[in-house]
Amino acid sequence: MKEHRFNDLRRAGAKGHIRPTTPPKAIKETETMSNILPQQQLLLELLVMSGKTAIATSDRNTILWRTLGECEDVGWLTMEKGIAGYEAAEITDAGRAVLKGAM
Known about the structure:
- There is one protein chain.
- The chain is α+β, with helices and mostly antiparallel strands.
- The chain has four helices and three strands; from the N terminus they run ααβαββα.
- The longest helix is centred in the middle third of the chain and has 13 residues, at 38-50.
């Protein structure tokens, strides 16, 4: 509670008025499409169209790898070791269900 109050004080307006803040909501596996980031939606749609896809591991400091990790963390895709320098990404049933929720 004190942490939220501190955040409220930091966000106070010029005259010292406190603007209400809402703590961020945790991501759940059952999130609807409206809660998926655009890059996550794009990645999942690509995996639906392409099937299992090989991804180069040469540079993991990219938006692609961050998005892969986010989707894997909530169970929307799986990653497995491929040939040297590549990993394979594949969409899961939960990932397909999230995409169907938008239609």
